[in-house]
Amino acid sequence: MVRQRLMRDPRDCQDHARKCSRLAENLPESRARQLFAEMATTWLRLAIEAETTKARLDQLAAQQMDQGYRFGSRVAKKAHRRP
Protein backbone atom coordinates (compact mmCIF):
# COMPACT_ATOMS: atom_id res chain seq x y z
CA MET A 1 0.00 0.00 0.00
CA VAL A 2 1.33 3.42 -0.95
CA ARG A 3 1.36 5.98 1.84
CA GLN A 4 0.03 9.37 0.79
CA ARG A 5 1.54 12.58 2.03
CA LEU A 6 -0.93 14.87 3.72
CA MET A 7 0.70 18.03 2.49
CA ARG A 8 2.27 18.76 -0.87
CA ASP A 9 5.76 20.18 -1.14
CA PRO A 10 5.54 23.74 -2.52
CA ARG A 11 8.47 23.05 -4.86
CA ASP A 12 6.63 20.11 -6.42
CA CYS A 13 3.60 22.32 -7.01
CA GLN A 14 5.78 25.00 -8.60
CA ASP A 15 7.41 22.39 -10.85
CA HIS A 16 4.00 21.17 -12.01
CA ALA A 17 2.95 24.77 -12.68
CA ARG A 18 6.05 25.38 -14.82
CA LYS A 19 5.43 22.19 -16.81
CA CYS A 20 1.80 23.13 -17.44
CA SER A 21 2.81 26.66 -18.48
CA ARG A 22 5.41 25.29 -20.91
CA LEU A 23 2.87 22.92 -22.41
CA ALA A 24 0.32 25.72 -22.76
CA GLU A 25 2.86 27.99 -24.46
CA ASN A 26 3.79 25.31 -26.99
CA LEU A 27 0.22 24.53 -28.05
CA PRO A 28 -1.74 26.45 -30.64
CA GLU A 29 -4.84 28.31 -29.47
CA SER A 30 -7.16 25.52 -28.34
CA ARG A 31 -9.14 24.17 -25.44
CA ALA A 32 -6.09 22.11 -24.42
CA ARG A 33 -3.94 25.25 -24.23
CA GLN A 34 -6.56 26.93 -22.05
CA LEU A 35 -6.77 23.89 -19.76
CA PHE A 36 -3.00 23.71 -19.27
CA ALA A 37 -2.92 27.42 -18.47
CA GLU A 38 -5.69 26.91 -15.90
CA MET A 39 -3.85 23.94 -14.40
CA ALA A 40 -0.70 26.06 -14.08
CA THR A 41 -2.70 28.67 -12.16
CA THR A 42 -4.17 25.98 -9.90
CA TRP A 43 -0.72 24.50 -9.19
CA LEU A 44 0.60 27.94 -8.29
CA ARG A 45 -2.31 28.47 -5.90
CA LEU A 46 -1.59 25.08 -4.31
CA ALA A 47 2.08 26.05 -3.94
CA ILE A 48 1.09 29.22 -2.09
CA GLU A 49 -1.30 27.28 0.17
CA ALA A 50 1.38 24.67 0.89
CA GLU A 51 3.92 27.38 1.76
CA THR A 52 1.41 29.10 4.03
CA THR A 53 0.50 25.83 5.76
CA LYS A 54 4.14 24.91 6.25
CA ALA A 55 4.90 28.33 7.74
CA ARG A 56 1.96 28.01 10.15
CA LEU A 57 3.01 24.52 11.21
CA ASP A 58 6.60 25.68 11.75
CA GLN A 59 5.35 28.60 13.83
CA LEU A 60 3.13 26.31 15.92
CA ALA A 61 6.00 23.88 16.50
CA ALA A 62 8.26 26.74 17.62
CA GLN A 63 5.58 27.98 20.03
CA GLN A 64 5.17 24.51 21.51
CA MET A 65 8.91 24.22 22.04
CA ASP A 66 8.95 27.59 23.84
CA GLN A 67 6.25 26.41 26.25
CA GLY A 68 8.58 23.83 27.75
CA TYR A 69 6.03 21.05 28.10
CA ARG A 70 2.68 19.77 26.99
CA PHE A 71 -0.10 18.56 29.21
CA GLY A 72 0.64 14.99 30.17
CA SER A 73 4.31 15.14 29.32
CA ARG A 74 7.05 13.98 31.65
CA VAL A 75 7.97 17.59 32.41
CA ALA A 76 4.39 18.29 33.50
CA LYS A 77 4.36 15.17 35.69
CA LYS A 78 7.65 16.10 37.34
CA ALA A 79 6.32 19.55 38.18
CA HIS A 80 3.38 18.02 40.08
CA ARG A 81 5.33 15.45 42.11
CA ARG A 82 5.50 15.86 45.85
CA PRO A 83 8.85 15.58 47.58
Can you describe what's shown?
The protein is mainly alpha-helical. The protein has one domain. It is 72% helix and 0% strand. It contains three helices and no strands. The longest helix is centred in the middle third of the chain and has 37 residues. It is rod-shaped, with a radius of gyration of 22 Å. The model has no long low-confidence stretch (mean pLDDT 81).
Key words describing this protein structure:
about 0% strand; about 80 residues; mainly alpha; rod-shaped
- What is the CA–CA distance across the termini? 51 Å
Instruction: Profile the largest sheet.
Output: none
Low-confidence region ranges: none
**Overall outline:** rod-shaped
Please tell me how large the radius of gyration is. 22 Å
What number of structural domains do the residues give?
1
- Secondary-structure class: mainly alpha
Helix content: over 70%
Percent of sequence in beta strands: under 5%
What's the β-strand tally?
0
Mean pLDDT: 81
Total helical elements: 3
**Which sequence of SSEs, written as H and E, runs from N to C?**
HHH
Per-chain topology:
Blueprint: H1 10-26, H2 31-67, H3 74-79
Helix pairs in contact: 1-2
Short summary of the structure?
The chain has 83 residues and is mainly α.
